[in-house]
């Protein structure tokens, strides 16, 4: 739960772009809900037991309402059942790391868009026939007495559970016509188109996966670790065949070069060189793969270090730029204040000049009048 919260904080909405991440959140919510419902059921049980024991002595019959407790137990059981289904489906996330395990998920992902668009057409036909059956046979056949019952009656018809005699008895014309057209359009055409979409997607996925290099299978990894464990515990006898001697000498040489036992075991399993005579090309191929793998690790570490250095430099430059902007803003405010003071001084000077000119003009008119 803590890891999921940290990932959401770091990635925000991008976290929910992955289907399995959304599945993890759903599983986490169900897990918390089951814990809450379990605690609630326990507290309600304790409360009901306090009401039952001891039984009041002044009453011959004593009634305790157990319906809330039964409802709480049913809710807890149903929530736990849903959580278990989600948890079992979640195991697909951890076993789908090679071609065999990814065919199902890749097929569903590839066909999801087409199935979603085609489902609209399917449900239009399906609901149309459900309403037709409800209106035409609802008063005579119990299976079509409501729209809800009609929907499930048509679903059972797809599975082969239907009562044709009841339809024919209700209406000798509409009954057989309804049944035949429904089976033709929904079962023979629409349902088979669903299967065709999934089959095409599966064919494309299988063709793409067949062109990819073979990954290490789960059984190969388990067998490799088991053989390594037996060798470490000295429970497996070493054969004296030249092929095994070549493998052991090559393994010792790789260990001397600094590769781990697990890396060597995975490389041997991947290139299938255990238990046979090694050629120079085989040794060079394995050694090149191990060096490339180690080089990729070093390259990733170097890129991470370079990214960290670039980030620190960028942060320093941004901080310096912010300081420069703050100083520039202070200077601009100082200049604006000085301009305002100069403008006020000029305004006062102009006002004084106007007063002086007015007084001078007034004095010049007074002697002329006299």
UniProtKB/TrEMBL annotation:
Provide any one GO MF term from the record.
calcium channel activity
Q: Could you confirm whether the keyword Metal-binding appears in this record?
A: yes
Localization per Swiss-Prot or TrEMBL: Cell membrane; Cell projection, Cilium
User: Which segments constitute the Polycystin cation channel PKD1/PKD2 domain?
Assistant: 2-205
- The keyword Metal-binding is assigned to this record: yes
Pfam families given in the database record: PKD_channel
The family database entries (Gene3D superfamilies) matched by this protein are listed as:
1.10.287.70
Q: Show the GO cellular component annotation of the record.
A: cilium; plasma membrane
Q: Name one GO biological process term.
A: detection of mechanical stimulus
Q: Which UniProt keywords apply?
A: Calcium, Calcium channel, Calcium transport, Cell membrane, Cell projection, Coiled coil, Disulfide bond, Glycoprotein, Ion channel, Ion transport, Membrane, Metal-binding, Transmembrane, Transmembrane helix, Transport
Residues noted as binding Ca(2+) in the record, renumbered to the chain:
272, 282
Q: What is its main location?
A: membrane
Q: Where are the transmembrane segments?
A: 76-95, 115-135, 173-198
Membrane-topology descriptor: Multi-pass membrane protein
Q: Please state which protein family the record places this protein in.
A: Belongs to the polycystin family.
Protein's UniProt name: Polycystin-2
Report the source organism. Answer: Ascaris suum
């Amino acid at each position: 739960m803590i890891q999921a919260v940290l990932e959401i904080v770091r990635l925000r909405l991008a976290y929910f772009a992955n289907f399995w991440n959304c599945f993890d959140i759903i599983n986490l919510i169900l897990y918390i809900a089951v814990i809450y419902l379990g605690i609630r059921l326990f507290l309600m049980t304790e409360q009901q037991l306090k009401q039952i024991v001891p039984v009041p002595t002044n009453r011959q019959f004593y009634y305790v309402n157990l319906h809330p407790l039964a409802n709480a137990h049913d809710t807890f059981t149903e929530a736990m059942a849903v959580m278990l289904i989600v948890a079992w489906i979640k195991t697909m996330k951890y076993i789908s790391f090679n071609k065999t395990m990814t065919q199902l998920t890749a097929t569903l992902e590839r066909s999801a868009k087409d199935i979603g668009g085609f489902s609209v057409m399917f449900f239009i036909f399906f609901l149309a026939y459900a309403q037709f059956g409800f209106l035409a046979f609802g008063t005579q056949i119990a299976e079509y007495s409501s729209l809800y019952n009609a929907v499930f009656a048509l679903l059972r018809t797809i599975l082969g559970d239907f009562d044709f005699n009841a339809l024919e008895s209700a209406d000798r014309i509409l009954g057989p016509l309804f049944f035949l057209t429904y089976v033709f359009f929904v079962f023979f055409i629409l349902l088979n188109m669903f299967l065709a979409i999934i089959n095409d997607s599966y064919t494309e996925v299988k063709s793409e996966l067949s062109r990819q290099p073979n990954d290490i299978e789960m059984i190969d990894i388990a067998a490799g670790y088991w053989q390594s464990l037996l060798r470490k515990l000295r429970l497996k006898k070493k054969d004296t065949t030249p092929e095994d001697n070549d493998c052991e000498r090559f393994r010792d040489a790789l260990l001397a070069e600094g590769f781990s036992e697990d890396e060597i075991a995975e490389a041997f399993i991947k290139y299938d060189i255990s238990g046979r005579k090694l050629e120079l090309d085989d040794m060079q191929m394995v050694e090149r793969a191990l060096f490339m793998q180690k080089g990729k690790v070093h390259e990733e570490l170097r890129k991470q270090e370079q990214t960290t250095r670039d980030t620190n430099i960028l942060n320093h430059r941004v901080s310096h730029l912010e300081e420069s902007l703050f100083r520039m803003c202070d200077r601009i405010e100082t200049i604006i204040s000085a301009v305002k003071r100069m403008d006020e001084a000029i305004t006062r000077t102009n006002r004084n000049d106007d007063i002086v000119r007015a007084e001078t003009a007034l004095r010049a008119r007074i002697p002329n009048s006299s």
